[in-house]
Amino acid sequence: MKSSLKKTFLIACTLLAQTLWASHASDCDGIVTPTISSEKSISCSGQAVLLKASGCEGKVVWSNQKTGNSVFVYPTQTSSYTAYCQKDECKSALSNSITILINTPATPTIKASNNKICLGESVTLNATGCAGEVIWSNGSTGNEITVYPTNTTKYTATCRNEGCISCFSDDIIITIMGGEPLKLTATKSTICAGETTSLTAQGNCAGTIRWSTNQTGSSISVSPQNTTEYWAYCESTACNIVKSSMYVSVVPPLPPTISASKNTLCAGENLILTATGCTGIVEWDNGMQGQSITVTPLENAQYIAYCKRGDCKSSPSQAFKVYVGSSIPSRPEVVTEMTNQCPFVTVDLSSALLKKAPEGITYEVHTSSSASSLSLKEVGAISENRTFYFFARHMATGCLSEPAAVSVKLQACTQSLALCTTNPATAKITKTEQTTLNNYLLEGSIGGVASSAQWLSNGTGTFSTTNGLTTIYTPSSEDRQAGKVTISFVSNDPDAEGPCHAGSDITYLTLQPNQSGAKEMVGINKTLKGWTSVGANIYEIEYLIQVVNMGSNILKQIQVIDSLDKTFRSGAIVLTPTVVKIFEPSVGSSPLVDTSYQGSNNHYQLLVPETLSLAAGQALTLSVIAKVDFTNATDSIFNNTAFVSAIDINGHTLVDQSTNGNWPDINQNQDPSDDLTPTPLALNSLNGKDNDVFIPEGFSPNSDGINDFLIIRKPQNLRASLEIYNRWGGLIYTADDYKNDWNGGISSQNALPAGTYFYSVKLSDGRELSKFLTISR
Hints:
Blueprint: H1 2-28, E1 35-38, E2 42-43, E3 49-54, E4 59-62, E5 70-73, E6 79-81, E7 83-87, E8 90-91, E9 98-102, E10 109-112, E11 116-117, E12 123-128, E13 133-136, E14 144-147, E15 153-155, E16 157-161, E17 164-165, E18 172-176, E19 183-186, E20 190-191, E21 197-202, E22 208-211, E23 219-222, E24 228-235, E25 244-250, E26 257-259, E27 264-266, E28 271-276, E29 281-284, E30 292-295, E31 301-303, E32 305-309, E33 312-313, E34 320-325, E35 337-338, E36 361-366, E37 386-394, E38 404-408, H2 419-422, E39 426-434, E40 440-447, E41 453-457, E42 462-463, E43 470-474, H3 477-482, E44 484-491, E45 504-510, E46 522-535, E47 538-549, E48 555-561, H4 564-567, E49 573-584, E50 613-614, E51 619-629, E52 637-640, E53 643-647, E54 653-657, E55 659-660, E56 679-682, H5 683-687, E57 698-699, E58 720-725, E59 731-735, E60 755-763, E61 768-775
Parallel strand pairs: 2-9, 11-18, 20-25, 27-34, 35-38, 46-55, 57-61
Antiparallel strand pairs: 1-3, 3-5, 4-7, 6-9, 7-8, 10-12, 12-14, 13-16, 15-18, 16-17, 19-21, 21-23, 22-24, 24-25, 26-28, 28-30, 29-32, 31-34, 32-33, 36-37, 37-38, 39-40, 40-43, 41-44, 42-43, 44-45, 46-47, 47-51, 48-50, 48-53, 49-51, 52-56, 53-54, 58-59, 58-60, 60-61
């Protein structure tokens, strides 16, 4: 009985389960299989691809386990994707399958026409195996490029095809064998007899550096007993030998020269004493050391200094005597407020004094209550509303009184006199200082209604600039032979034919002949003079180049190199012809100008060197007018540099690289070789639009707070997307709206190693910039 009931119960349960399963299977039959699609079927390795699914009323589950109607995938190899729709416990059938094909451009193979060259020679680099665009590590594009390396340089290339980047090619190293002067330096160029100094030769030399002592190597030690000339050259069978020389002077230290701003003090006043002319350590007779010391004498005193270098000590300097006074002048008695009387529009500030200065006292006017503020030289025609301060100065001690304030309040006049009748233009030469190269640093000042001034001379020398308050006059050999030259400093005439007149001043320079043994130097500077639009995105751009013989003897075989196609690249094209004109010396353009010069296609020499020489102090000024097409330019800033070479009387080759400005020695340290600023041209200067974009060629994310991030400079209204690729063509960083916040992964566990990478920047104005990038750590 029990067995029969149990069997009946099991049969009933089975029938119920079958009924429920049939009902459930009937419910899942309504799940719709999704349809999937991709925004693109071909992609680059690691780039984002958007997948979409439609028709699912539940949850879309993809074959890579991601969920959602839309997902991003980042395939690094060709991959297929499917999806199904899930609702509760029900799953649809699998969707259609889509395949994303990964486009991996072939790595180019690069070759060089020559792996070892002499300075000045060219190398042709050729890339094969790229079906797209070849981009070289120097920024050039194309299957074949010509390079002119100035030092041993490594080149690589990548292939870009349909937006994808290949692996970097194997590196090619172009070695400079020699053919250029070496730069000789000494740890100490002036020593005591028997003292040791180290000489170092720097430059490109793939052979052996040999010295006049017959020693070899980049550095040697010498201990001369007398002043000695040392020379070195690169011993190489591949290139011509070029000797470079320098002197090591063996002399005891000269006693320094002590100077100060004054030698008469008030009691308790500080005075800074400065000792010049010492290349060692300055020791003072009061036990202090240093080039400058501060003393506070309470009574008359004298100070002596010595120059100590190693075990050598100079004889004592000439004693510098300081006189201490104690009298403090009384404050000047003045009116507290002044105004003009029409028709005069200025006031005579000297009339503010109520009493004359006592004997031995002089009055001076400053622009503030501090005695160190600007002192007015001319007070007879004050034309501004402000407060001035009178001081009394003791002529013997230089002690100053407390200031007395005078407020100037000017009223307008309906019929006023010309300002220059009460405030005439003035010009004064304030400094004529001889430089170490026997040139002259000139300074001037202007006053009254003068707004500018000009330098003039009756000689044949040159000014570094004829306008401005400061200039350097380089006497010509004719000037030096005459022994004297007149310098004039003339202000502008404020009203041309009116009652006003220009101010002027004259000084006479007594010239010394060039001293024997002076350093021979050639310098070059370059400025952007202007441009003219000659068509859609085509401009004629004019540069002015000045070459100056900054030595003491004649220079021959002057040559100027200007490779414009290395400046205007990244899509910019230099059009022919390029015009070269010589302005100074006034010898005309022929036969000095090399008529084959184009600024491109290996035609880089501006001059015929055999025809041109420069006397000491003489300058050569020439103009280069280039026509450039910027239609397809992807860069917006172009920096240009010119080079000069010359042969001095000893047969040595002198070289210099141009600096931006109107004089080769911008920092005025008598050495043009350390002034190397290129001359810039910005596209926004040409078209008047703020579209300059600058991307550095590298950065150093090492947490030192300097250059730790990749900074892209651009106008605020432009958005930039950034992609960074490694040398295998893999995308390693991307940002749709880059915020200058990438530091090479320094804060993560996968910080990128130092090396070369490739970037692609797409701007919201449609431009795309691509180049190689170096990360240094």
